[in-house]
Amino acid sequence: MYLPNHFAEERVDVLHRLIEAHPLGTLVTLGPDGPDANHLPFEISPDPAPFGTLRGHVARANPVWRTAAPGAPALVVFHGPGAYVSPSLYPSKREDARLVPTWNYVVVHAHGSLRAIEDSAWLHAFVERLTRRHEASRHQPWKVTDAPENFIESMLRGIVGLELPIARLLGKWKLSQNRSSADRLGAEAGLRREGGATGKALADWMRDAAEE
Question: How many CA atoms lie within 13 A of 2 on its CB side?
Answer without folding.
Answer: 1
